[in-house]
Amino acid sequence: MKANCLRITSGSLRSRKIEYFPNYDLRPTKSYIREVIFNVCKLEDNFNTLDLFSGSGILTLESISRGAQDCHLVESNKETCDKFLSECKKLNVENYMLFHCDVFKFLQKEQSQDYQLIFIDPPYKYDCLRNVLDELFRRNFIKNNQYIYLEQDKKNKDKSVCEHLSTKYHIIKDLSIGDVSYTIAKKRDYD
User: Which of 13, 117, 118, 188 has its CA 20 to 30 A from that of 144?
Assistant: First the structure.
């Protein structure tokens, strides 16, 4: 398999390959972690997702493959966006909306806040996870949310991000594999 190629792990698009635009900041989520996400997150059919810093879009395509009804992606790199659009065309996937813009601009303008699963996977050079969570909380993106998934660099992991997330969510998984630290959290019932 080529270095800039990924395979969808499960669902209706299982084993289909996608290519992505190679970019220094892009680190597609490993297949093992994708399996863990969808084994842990118990979602109804026709769920909706928000993929912030979407990169290759593999988390969205895994979601669509597993029954997501509507997926929104936010990516600031134009070449990365163009490549994702061409891959969706090859896969005949249409139930997504791609926003080519800065994540914070998107969060300040977005009106639809009905996302059961939110992915937050910024480039490691950005220290913005806590700010993204603050904006999601402030703008009430968590109203109908069930799960949040986030990734950070294992070497420079900011433990305060999980502490902040745990004010409104149960931390289900907070693990590392290779250079990746990943967290899966489920919203508390009383919020």
Answer: 13
- Which domains are delineated in the chain? 5-14+32-187 (3.40.50.150)
In which element (H, E) is residue 171 found?
A: strand 169-177
Beta bridge partners of 149: 119, 184
How confident is the model over 131-178, as pLDDT tens digits?
999 999 999 899 889 999 999 999 999 999 999 999 999 999 999 999
Q: Which of 39, 33, 30, 50 is nearest to 11 (CA)?
A: 39
Measure the N-to-C terminal CA separation of the chain; round to a whole number of Å.
44
Tokens of 70: 């509507």
Q: pLDDT, tens digit, for every residue of 66-85?
A: 999 999 999 999 999 999 99
pTM (2 decimals)? 0.94
